[in-house]
Design a protein that fits this description.
about 270 residues; Spore Coat Polysaccharide Biosynthesis Protein SpsA, Chain A; two-stranded antiparallel ribbon; globular
């Protein structure tokens, strides 16, 4: 969540992109809630140097709590207190002197993840909406395990005519299950290997985290960034299988103005 949110300027000059509201909650809280439903209770937020809004949101505000208690606003008091009690939150700063790209925030956290544990890698400006309240993270974890793997990636299907704007998965089929082969960036419609696109939502094991560290030691991509996608390629090239799992819900990208408006209309209604 350390990015500057340049697609949403000028509002992101004052509001962290992960804190843009969908209804009465910031975007990132939908990601957190989905994880909590899956039993995840430990979070590492990778933030920029001056990002303090998310810390205030998940921290305690004693003055506000006293005010609500004195006014007899029991429901509201319970709601704000619950934010600090649902899980443990840690903050990792990605400062302006760090390199840029999706692999960097993952690399900054690798030393805090025990070798025998998996870690979810999720973005803070998008989420998957399930009207029935089910957890997409739980779906990812269960489907990854069912595929006999310890790392996995979520994907969403889009109309084939829209693939030119995205990174598109090419898969290989093993015993009826789809595994990652590569990502084709912005292919022509006739060249697209599928209509499943990458939405940057993963579960990684220790081996994958080591691949991420390697990416950050390599020269950057042509755009100057260090990209997680390269770690996926390393992982598979070394003989590991990485299942590609279609989502159950609806992918809502709040990184664009149109996507954010749609997310509010979808979740809150008009």
């Amino acid at each position: 969540m350390a990015g500057y949110g340049t697609r949403r300027l000028p509002i992101t000059k004052a509001i962290e992109k992960c804190m843009l509201p969908v209804g009465n909650r910031p975007v990132v809280d939908y990601v957190v809630e989905d994880c909590i439903r899956a039993g995840i209770t430990e979070f590492f937020f990778v933030v920029g140097e001056e990002f303090d809004q998310i810390k205030r949101y998940y921290g305690q505000n004693q003055i506000l709590e006293d005010y609500l208690e004195n006014k007899g606003k029991t429901k509201e008091l319970e709601e704000v207190r619950a934010l600090t009690k649902r899980a443990r939150f840690h903050y990792v700063v990605q400062d302006q002197y760090q390199p840029y790209g999706t692999a960097v925030p993952v690399m900054l956290c690798t030393h805090m993840i025990p070798e025998d544990e998996q870690v979810l890698v999720l973005m803070g400006d998008d989420f998957i909406y399930n009207p029935d309240g089910s957890s997409e993270v739980k779906h990812l974890l269960e489907a990854t395990e069912a595929a006999g793997a310890t790392s996995g990636v979520l994907a969403t299907r889009i109309p084939k005519e829209e693939v030119e704007k995205y990174g598109v998965f090419e898969m290989t089929n093993v015993d009826g299950k789809e595994y990652f082969k590569r990502i084709v960036e912005q292919p022509k419609v006739e060249d697209a290997p599928s209509n499943l696109i990458n939405i940057s939502k993963y579960v990684f094991d220790h081996k994958m985290l080591q691949a991420v560290k390697q990416v950050c030691q390599d020269p950057p991509a042509d755009n100057g960034e260090y990209q997680v996608i390269k770690a996926l390629n390393y992982y598979v090239a070394d003989g590991s299988q990485l299942p590609v799992i279609p989502i159950n819900g609806e992918y809502l990208d709040c990184g664009t103005t149109a996507g954010w408006v749609h997310a509010n209309n979808r979740v809150v209604g008009v």
